[in-house]
Sequence to fold (860 residues):
Amino acid sequence: MAHDMVKLGLAGYGTVGTGLARILEENGDWIARRLGKRLGITKVLVRNLDKGRAFPPGPKTTFTTSMEELVNDPEIDIVVELMGGIEAPYQLIRSALEKGKPVVTANKALLAERGPELFALANRQELGLYYEASVAGGIPIVETLKQSLAGNKIKTLTGILNGTANFILSEMTATGMDFTDALGLAQDKGYAEADPELDIEGMDAAHKLCLLIRLAHGQDYPLHDLPVQGITGMHPFDIEMARDFGYRIKLLAQVKDRSGHLQAGVFPALIKEDHILAKVDGPYNAILLDGNAVGPIMLYGQGAGDLPTGSAVLADIMALARKTAPNNTGFIEESLPKAQILAPEQTVFRHYFRFTVKDRPGVLSTISGIMGERNISIAQAVQKQEPQGGGVPVVFFSHAAQLKDVRDALSEIDGLSFVCAPTVHYRILS
Amino acid sequence: MAHDMVKLGLAGYGTVGTGLARILEENGDWIARRLGKRLGITKVLVRNLDKGRAFPPGPKTTFTTSMEELVNDPEIDIVVELMGGIEAPYQLIRSALEKGKPVVTANKALLAERGPELFALANRQELGLYYEASVAGGIPIVETLKQSLAGNKIKTLTGILNGTANFILSEMTATGMDFTDALGLAQDKGYAEADPELDIEGMDAAHKLCLLIRLAHGQDYPLHDLPVQGITGMHPFDIEMARDFGYRIKLLAQVKDRSGHLQAGVFPALIKEDHILAKVDGPYNAILLDGNAVGPIMLYGQGAGDLPTGSAVLADIMALARKTAPNNTGFIEESLPKAQILAPEQTVFRHYFRFTVKDRPGVLSTISGIMGERNISIAQAVQKQEPQGGGVPVVFFSHAAQLKDVRDALSEIDGLSFVCAPTVHYRILS
Fold:
């Protein structure tokens, strides 16, 4: 069977690029059966021509260090951006689109920060700018939101979007190890970068959440407006306490439609152990969403890695190779309106509190009195006799309360003389 | 904003048709923002014009009892088949395709039995014949296999595809109730049909599995070649026994690629309680698959119901309304080859056995001797002192064994004088 060849120009040949090349070699005939065309990597942009490559991208691939050479090559049908960073890939994608080439990218940071400009350009050029690999690795959440669930209004979307953070929390939960050891283990296993800050501080999940908000709601939620709390320094005591009460702690990225205003953020939260998201362990990712027609849907899989992410890049390449009309944002507008943002202070959740206090009479009633004045009512309370941080821990599980009230109460409580350390508090997913 | 109208002709206006109409009313503006077009139900084929409809399909909808009138209406852009049955919808879909109209159907039985003819016709006509709603309700598994994971070879696909059976097993597990009571409860809750045979005997799951095999493997696995075992008469003792050993029993539909030959079937099986499929309870469906690039992926959601199924029908309608090139089977061939089927006897699984025997010396050693001769080795064994069926139950969990050996051993064992009732056996998912 003779096949047309769709020619790919790759920018970057690291983990994901190598993964893509391996899949194209292993599954090339299979892809041709699906597509009626073969896919070939013909040119690769790299920083260093002399570096050895463990897996060559293809028999006829040439390497270049010139971005111009890649985007100007008339042979190349699709440009695949796998460079990382912001400025260089931004320039590359702009140039490629201006030259009339559709683009596939896995770059969540770039799209979160400068997506609107690039989507507007792609729209003017009537070209595809696809990004399945930018959220949750091989899980087809971008396609699902653009196509399969496009007729649904998404009431709530809750994601476990960072595999490193999830691995750390899973290990701490399973073994009782502390945060530093769990992070070290994640690094040993290759899940965490040498500089893990983006992962554990929640920014990586925030980038992905920005993209998902755009896809689910057709609104641009500026990254710098998104409240982001990571898991750095998560204490084993809180994980154990959560377990005792039947909860797991996960780093969540969530957006809720609250009467047309979006309540969104990245934060660690307690989840009941029989909740399906509580079962998402180790480096896995999952997105649970609730559509007003489809009801609850969850997609689960590996959020990172050469082959899973390569699989998502390949899905986009195949979609573009089919030359269907581009569907980049999932909406017909050239640019999406800025999100109607619910002030984070108005966010309502149940909360977990750990106070560290001197063990003396009247402490509990003072704290619960202050909380009561702020309309925070206590569902469960427990005092542990294990001295910690110069005091003993007192844990409260609250009923639903507004974040503003929680912050006001804590600022008052943390100023009391018998409080020995800043209060730890996490949300509880309901 | 002025919008084109895409006109839908519905055949059948039962649960799913009503669900679709409700979604179109509720989400009409939202859909127009996604699509640049409005969707309207303009004609509905019904059996009885005089029947009252709880929810009208649209302000300008006309009803007809004539299939010809529906497919000949030049105004109708897309025909949506929601009739049920085989012969009448087959004729309808044929006529619609012959008249040049793309078709959306939720009819798994029809596509399992006569899909190849209809897909060949759609291919000749270059028309879409879409069927997201035919498998697992609102879960976008059809689109995912056709598009997002199309570049993957699927090594194993395991589905919980029948919500009624899953609800029954979940109730039996949670409450210890017996099969008949759980079935009655499923009927009371509206999950089970008045005649639940298709659900509990496994045929409904088998229909869906045929469709998934086609999508994942590009091969036609004839329905009548598929080994199907349902859950009728499932005994609470076995569910409890499975629980004692850390397992749940689920009705599974599974296909595995074993060196190019497909091992497929529908069967109840024991699943370790910490396996993600073991958490799929009640009327929910899930599909877990393992692609050679993406690794394990699971999609989870409601497998039935008016709105979830309507959501899937709507996804297909929106895909067709975008007028993209049709992609029906996910492969470019006009017709798919017949599957390379692995003989069911060669299927290898771990097994659960419950023997009902007279409580006398030598029984265990005789049974395990016969199993040993057939290369079935025992991982765990337990004898309960609760008389049952004229004997006492003896439970074995085996290591992996070939189905042929299991059947040969059971036929010998069930002929022994001390065996009081036919041996119950289920597979164990590994």
In short: Chain B has three domains: 4-130, 153-302, 344-428.
